[in-house]
Each structure stands twice: as structure tokens, then as C-alpha cells.
Amino acid sequence: MRVTVSVPGKVSLFGEHAVVYGEPALVAAIGKRLTVSVEGRSDRLIKISAMDLQVPGVVLTFSEESPELIVETDYGKIVGAVGYVRKAIEIASECLGKRGGVNVTIRSEMPVGAGLGTSAAVAVGTVAAYALLMEEELPLGEIARLAHQTELAVQGLASPMDTSVATYGGVLYIRPSAQQTIEKLPITCPLPMVVGYSEREFRTSDLVKKVRALREAYPDIVSPTLQSIGRISERAKCALAFGDLDSLGMLMNINHGLLDSLGVSSKSLNDMVYSARFAGAIGSKMTGGGGGGCMIALCPDREVEVSTAIRIVGGVPFRATVSEQGLKVESIDR
Ligand code: MEV
Q: 42 partner at 20 to 30 Å CA-CA among 5, 208, 227, 265?
């Protein structure tokens, strides 16, 4: 039996990093997707092929007996993504009480490990596809929960933001404090965005640890900064409800400044953020974990100019639109 599912990438509109400390965030699924295919094996091995991940494909094999990687590669990001597959299968197997050998193939239309939620997409896709392969249909809430557990196990600290949007799609308001709120917001107006991508040197988990260390060293400064980011998300939720793009743009600019003050932006991100504004974006900010990777610019009618400006400072631009489609079962071949 072969099961194929697809999962959207995401951009965090507001609130990354602060969401790890219970502050609200707004996140949007985008039209670029990652596909996970799983196929049963007669033994108990897990074989993972990662293709089209913006670097040459690699094939890795794990065995239960020797839990280390059998094939090592230079592609650190791929090996990173593969860690999520392995943990997702382990967590899903425990939950289902079933375990079988599996070939996993991952394909991505977006760069992996660039702040577009590909780790979460890998976790969600693997849990969902593996459960179907084991002839179990998990509710979406359970898939999101198991995928979040996977991220927590691999990264140490993680909010449910990326795994939720990968599961449900659309624009989500997330407040992961004592009483977790995940609300799918109506999309009142188009959000024409350009994403700028630059090579990323750090992993999200490194950046999350960096903010945690800063918060411990300067609690009286960093905690209010994180709370201010949370206030920005609340205001942005209202601005979105009214289709007020100018306010959304201004809030993006403030959010970027606060993230930069936390040390999670980078020269390449700042170059793209400021050149996008210079080219007419009404707002721009880094998106995701930072330390390189991706930024977003809200730029109705200025997509061409903003894309050119991003390219001039060395980034790779692509247009992004919000996608309502979350996790999708593409095919089940028996
Ligand atoms: C990463 O896309 C977003 C962060 O807030 C981490 C998380 O929420 O788990 C940096």
C-alpha cells in the first residue's frame, strides 16, 4: 500500500518567538507544498528519500537495531528534516500501538529549513501518512498534537504554531497559553506578499535557545519585548478583520524591529526587509526562526518592484498567497 499526503508551507505574519512564551501569533499557510509518500516494507526498516529539496536528493536508511544514521551526507538541512520523519514515525507508532517498516519519500516545492515551516510540514505529513498506512484515520487535532510532540522532541522548545497551520491551512490566530486557542480566521482581503529567501546559517532551535538565553539574562527588558510582540498580533488580528492593509504593514515593520532587537534577524534579512520597503512594500519583516532564511513583504501592486529589490540585495524572491488548504490526502494506492 502507498499513501501520499501533501502539506502547506507557512509564513508567520506576526508573533514568532513570542509565541513560544504563550503570546498570540498570526500565521498563514501558503500555496507552496511539501509531499510525503509512505509505502509499507516487509521488514522493520525506515528508508527515507528526500528529493527536490532545493539540493540534490539523498537516500538514508535507519534500522531499529542500530539507531544511528546508516548513510551520512553533507547536507545538514536534509539530515535535520530526516530527524523529524524518524521521530514522527516513532511517536505515531506509540500512539497507534502499531509499528511497521516503511519507505518514506519527501518532496518539497520550497527550500527546506528556511523558516517556511518545512520541519512542521514533514512532521504533520509523516504522522498523517503513516497512520493511514497502518489503516488508522486520526482526527486532524490528533495529527497536529502528535506532530507538535515530534517538534518538541527534536527541537526541545516549540510552539504549536507551525504544526497547526500545516494541519489546518488558512490564517490562524494561535494563543498557546494555559487555555490554548487556535482560531481559523476568515480571509477578508487578499494579502499579496513576496517572500525573500536567503541562505540560512542557523536552525530554528538555535534561535529559540538564543532568545531564551537573552530572556534569562535580561528578563526585565526581554519579557516586555515579547509581550509587545503579542500585543502586535492582537492588533493585527483586528486590522485583518477590517482588511486594513496599511495597519498590517505598519505592525509588520514594528514586529521586525522587535525581532531584530532580540538578535534573531541577520544582515541578509535586514537588507531584504529594508530594500522591500524602499521599493514600495507597505510593510516587511523577517518570518520564522530567523538567522537568515525568509522575510515577507506586504506589497499590493508592487510585487514586481519588490521582487527586483530583493534580488538586487542577493535574495531569491517568490510570490506567496494565502492557501486555505491544510493537510490533504492525495492518494491511497492499495
Ligand atoms: C518558527 O517558525 C517559529 C518560532 O516561533 C518557533 C516556534 O514557534 O516553535 C521561532
A: 5
Is residue 206 flagged as an active site residue? no
**Length of the chain, in residues:** 334
For 212-259, write each residue's pLDDT tens digit.
999 999 999 999 999 999 999 999 999 999 999 999 999 999 999 999
Q: What's the CA gap between 49 and 59, in Å, rounded? A: 4
In angstroms, the CA 60 to CA 78 distance is 10
CATH of domain 193-320: 3.30.70.890
Ligand 1, pocket-test mutation among 13, 19, 180, 264, most atoms within 8 A of CB? 19
Half-sphere exposure of 38 (CA within 13 A, CB side): 27
Q: Which fold has domain 2-185+323-333?
A: Ribosomal Protein S5; domain 2 (3.30.230)
What is the pLDDT averaged over residues 189-193?
91
CB 171 within 8 A of CB 187: yes
C-alpha dist (Å) from residue 2 to 42, 125, 183, 251 = 13, 14, 33, 45
- DSSP class of residue 82 equals H
Of the candidates 237, 312, 300, the residue with the CA atom closest to the CA atom of residue 275 = 312
> With a threshold of 0.85, does the pTM exceed it?
yes
∠ CA(190), CA(194), CA(195), 5° rounding? 125
pLDDT single digits (tens) 114-125: 888 988 999 999
**Residue boundaries of the structural domains of the chain:** 2-185+323-333, 193-320
- Ligand 1 lining (C-beta closer than 6 Å): 12, 16-17, 19-20, 117, 158-159, 161-162, 204, 208, 288-289
